[in-house]
Amino acid sequence: EAWGFWKATDSMAVKFGRGALDWADGTVISANTWEQTQKVFEGIMANYYSEWATIGFFGVKGFDTVSANTATDIPEGNFYGFTFDVKNLPDWMKGFKAHVLQEQGFGTGPGFSRMRYGVTVDGGMSNFDYRVAYNAHSGENDNTPAVDLNGSMMEFEGGYTFADFMNSRLSVLYHSDSGDDGTDATENAEYDEFHYDTHNNAGLMDIVGWGNSTYFKVGLGMEISDSTSLGLDYYSFSQTEKQGSLNTAVGTNNVAEDEVGTEIDLTLKKMYDNGMW
C-alpha cells in the first residue's frame, strides 16, 4: 500500500493512492487478508462528515491485467460511486450502511457495465443481536446478443449472548444468493460476488464460494478465560438453482443435485500479553 491522506476541512477528508478497502462488513469489498494474494485498489475517496452521516465519494481502478487473449478478455475495470454511514441511530440499531456504485469493464473484446447497490444493518437489544445484509447488481454484457446481468444476495443473522455462562453466544445465519438456470441465453441471473471476504463467509475451509449458493450456519462461541475463546460452527450448503453451477475452491463445477454438503469448524484462540494470538 502507498497512499496519502489530506484533511481538507473539519468536515472533509481525502484519501488517494493504493490501499485496501472494506465495505458492507466484507460482503461487497474486503482486503481478503487470508488469500495468497491480498486485494488493494488504486483510486481516490473523499469523505464528508456531518452530524447525521458520513458520505463517501470514490473512483477506483478495480483491476488491470495483461492477457494474450486480447480478442475476448477484459483487461481493465473501474468502479465509482458513493457510500452512506448513518449516525445518531435508535438504541436497537448500531449501524446502517448503504452503497451505490457503477462498475465498468473495458477491453478489445466485449465489455460490461453493472450498477451495484446494497445496505447493511446491525444492532440489538439486551442480550439479542442481529445483522441484515442485502446486495444486488444489474447491468449488461456487450456480447452479441447482449446479456442482461441481474443478481442479488441476502443474509440474516441473529444471536443471543448468555453473559453468565462464559459470555457464550449462540447464533443462526441464513445466506442466499441468486443462481442462473441457463434457460435464457440473453440473461444471467447468477450473483457476481465482486470482492467479498472469501474466508470469513461460507466456512473457514474456503471450499464453497458465493454465486448460486444458499447455506445456513449455527454457531456457538464462548470465552473459556480472559485470554482464550472457543468457537464451533456448523454449515449446511446447497445450490440456489439446481441447474446452475457452483463456485468452489477447485473452480466452477456443475452439481447434479441441490444439496452440496456440510462443514464443521472448530476454533480455539489464545491471546498472549504481548498481543500475539
Gyration radius from CA atoms, angstroms: 21 Å
Helical fraction equals: under 10%
Note the beta-strand portion. over 45%
| Topology as a string of helices (H) and strands (E) | EEEEEEEEEEEEEEEE
Coarse shape: globular
Mean pLDDT: 88
What is the oligomeric state here? Answer: single chain
Rounded to the nearest angstrom, the distance between the terminal CA atoms is 24 Å
What does this structure look like?
- This protein has strands spanning 2-9, 12-19, 41-49, 53-64, 76-86, 93-106, 112-125, 128-141, 147-162, 168-177, 187-188, 213-223, 228-239, 245-248, 251-254, 259-270.
- With 277 residues, the protein is mainly beta.
- The strands form 2 sheets. Strands 1, 2, 3, 4, 5, 6, 7, 8, 9, 10, 11, 12, 13 and 16 form a 14-stranded mixed β-sheet that branches. A two-stranded antiparallel ribbon has the order 14-15.
- The two termini are 24 Å apart.
What can be said about this structure in brief?
With 277 residues, the chain is mainly beta. The protein has strands at residues 2-9, 12-19, 41-49, 53-64, 76-86, 93-106, 112-125, 128-141, 147-162, 168-177, 187-188, 213-223, 228-239, 245-248, 251-254, 259-270. 0% of the residues lie in helices and 58% in strands.
Helix-strand layout with pairing:
Layout (H helix, E strand, L loop, with lengths): L1 E8 L2 E8 L21 E9 L3 E12 L11 E11 L6 E14 L5 E14 L2 E14 L5 E16 L5 E10 L9 E2 L24 E11 L4 E12 L5 E4 L2 E4 L4 E12 L7
Parallel strand pairs: 9-11
Antiparallel strand pairs: 1-2, 2-3, 3-4, 4-5, 5-6, 6-7, 7-8, 8-9, 9-10, 10-12, 12-13, 13-16, 14-15
